[in-house]
């Protein structure tokens, strides 16, 4: 029970109520004792005033009602001590002793100790001849009143504790019900279900838990759908070169391809094997980027020099495809903090994607611009470009491959995800958008060093 929310709320309520009971009991006991004494003393004083009104200056009753008053007082357990003018105090010995301790020479109110017992005493002087009387009440009568009050208060506090326990248990059950539903839904998610939803209700914090769990289920469903699409696209990309390698290898092994045909088959096998190697390398690099052991050799890199070096290599490849490569970069150094080898890998990856979709006669552009404390390098193409809704998801694995593989030449679906992760790890940003040449533009931005 203590391990459940209802049990803990019940215990908290009981603890709070218990502390309140203890504090209230300590305060109440003091108040009860003081109040009971004051009430009894006031009542005794009022009765003393009534008795005094029935006596004359000699201490002898001047009305017939004095006997009745005395009988009423004695019926309440109060002893009466009378001292007539010029005489001695008469009454119960203990009461006389208690009255004598307080004194019969003047009007007094107080508590005295006689033979180990406490007594409340009220004395009154009647007239001017020395007559006086006293009312003496054993303090145990006050203690009985106190005990009765304490019993009533303890009963009320006990009922309060019971109500607190019931309220805590009911509150805990009510609060715990949506959390139990959320726990069951989480278990279903762990078991593989993605259609689980939890009603968003209850206190705000509990409703936030339910809403977050529903959002998690949606996110998992979308993520798993994309993973399936990505695996399908990767499988397709792997199957194509493997089929070519297997077919041409079998042709050479069976003697179907010989002489020049065997040489062409070998070249095809080599080309497809290189394609497989690039794909596997990209997959491994993408997996390593999420691991802690992935390291970068960050240093100052001249972005302008890197662009010009890349352009020399890509000029030849673009010329073979009849694509015009333009380079725009300042002549002065543009230093940034990055890993030179990884930065070159990013540029080559973007250039390969751009060349793949750029038709013959269309342009491809390397553009480096400097603005304030940042430098931006764009790789643009004159290809068909992307739909506006595709730019925000361009760097998600396999998304563009799944959307365009039946309409245009596409890569494996992991190249853009890889270059985006590399740029991010180097402290830069990579964005996608439409290019002035009509195709797509991929722009990486770094702070100048």
From TrEMBL:
Keywords, A to Z, come to:
ATP-binding, Cell membrane, Hydrolase, Kinase, Magnesium, Manganese, Membrane, Nucleotide-binding, Phosphoprotein, Protein phosphatase, Stress response, Transferase, Transmembrane, Transmembrane helix, Two-component regulatory system, Virulence
Name the principal localization, coarsely classed.
membrane
Q: What are the transmembrane regions?
A: 6-28, 149-170
Record-annotated HAMP domain positions: 173-225
Under the heading SMART domains, the entry gives: HAMP (SM00304), HATPase_c (SM00387), HisKA (SM00388)
Single annotated GO MF: phosphorelay sensor kinase activity
The domain of life for this entry's organism is Bacteria
Enzyme class, top EC level, equals transferase
Keyword Cell division recorded: no
* Classification via SUPFAM superfamilies: ATPase domain of HSP90 chaperone/DNA topoisomerase II/histidine kinase (SSF55874), HAMP domain-like (SSF158472), Homodimeric domain of signal transducing histidine kinase (SSF47384)
Histidine kinase domain: from which residue to which, for each copy?
Answer: 233-449
Q: Where in the cell is it found?
A: Cell membrane
Mention any one GO cellular component term assigned to this protein in its UniProt record: plasma membrane
Look up and give the membrane topology term.
Answer: Multi-pass membrane protein
Q: Name one Pfam family in it.
A: HisKA
> Which InterPro entries does the record cross-reference, listed alphabetically?
2C_sensor_his_kinase, HAMP_dom, HATPase_C_sf, HATPase_dom, His_kinase_dom, HisK_dim/P_dom, HisK_dim/P_sf, Sig_transdc_His_kin-like_C
Q: What cofactor does its activity depend on?
A: Mg(2+); Mn(2+)
The EC code for this enzyme is 2.7.13.3
Q: Does the keyword Flavoprotein apply?
A: no
Query: What is the reaction catalyzed?
Result: ATP + protein L-histidine = ADP + protein N-phospho-L-histidine
Provide the protein name.
Signal transduction histidine-protein kinase/phosphatase MprB
- Organism per entry: Amycolatopsis rifamycinica
């Amino acid at each position: 029970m203590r391990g459940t929310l209802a049990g803990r709320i019940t215990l908290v309520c009981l603890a709070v109520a218990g502390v309140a009971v203890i504090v209230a009991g300590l305060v109440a006991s003091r108040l009860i004792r003081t109040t009971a004494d004051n009430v009894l003393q006031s009542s005794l004083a009022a009765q003393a005033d009534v008795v005094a009104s029935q006596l004359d200056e000699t201490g002898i009753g001047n009305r017939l009602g004095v006997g009745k008053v005395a009988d009423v007082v004695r019926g309440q357990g109060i002893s009466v001590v009378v001292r007539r003018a010029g005489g001695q105090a008469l009454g119960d010995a203990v009461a006389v002793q208690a009255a004598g301790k307080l004194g019969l020479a003047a009007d007094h109110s107080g508590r005295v100790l006689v033979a180990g017992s406490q007594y409340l005493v009220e004395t009154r002087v009647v007239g001017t001849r020395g007559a006086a009387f006293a009312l003496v009440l054993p303090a145990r009568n006050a203690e009985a009143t106190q005990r009765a009050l304490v019993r009533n208060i303890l009963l009320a506090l006990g009922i309060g504790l019971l109500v607190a326990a019931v309220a805590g248990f009911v509150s805990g059950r009510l609060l715990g019900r949506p959390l139990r539903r959320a726990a069951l839904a989480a278990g279903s998610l762990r078991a593989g279900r993605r259609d689980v939803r939890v009603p968003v209700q209850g206190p705000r914090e509990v409703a936030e838990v339910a809403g977050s769990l529903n959002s998690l289920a949606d996110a998992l469903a979308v993520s798993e759908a994309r993973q399936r699409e990505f695996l399908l696209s990767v499988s397709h990309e792997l199957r194509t070169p493997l089929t070519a390698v297997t077919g041409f290898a079998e042709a050479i092994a069976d003697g179907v391809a010989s002489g020049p045909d065997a040489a062409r088959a070998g070249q095809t096998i080599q080309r497809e094997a290189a394609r497989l190697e690039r794909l596997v390398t990209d997959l491994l690099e993408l997996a390593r980027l999420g691991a802690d052991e992935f390291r970068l050799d960050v240093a100052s890199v001249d972005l302008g020099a890197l662009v010009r070096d890349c352009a020399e290599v890509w000029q030849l490849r673009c010329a073979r495809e009849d694509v015009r490569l333009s380079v725009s970069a300042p002549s002065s150094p543009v230093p940034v903090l990055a890993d030179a080898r990884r930065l070159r890998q990013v540029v080559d990856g973007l250039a390969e994607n751009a060349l793949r979709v750029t038709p013959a006669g269309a342009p491809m552009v390397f553009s480096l611009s400097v603005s304030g404390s940042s430098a931006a390098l764009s790789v643009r193409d004159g290809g068909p470009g992307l739909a506006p809704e595709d730019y925000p998801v361009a760097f998600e694995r396999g998304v563009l491959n799944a959307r365009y593989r039946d309409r245009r030449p596409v890569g494996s679906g992991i190249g853009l995800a890889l270059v985006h992760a590399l740029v991010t790890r180097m402290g830069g940003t990579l964005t996608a958008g439409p290019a002035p040449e009509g195709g797509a533009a991929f722009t990486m931005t770094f702070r100048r060093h």
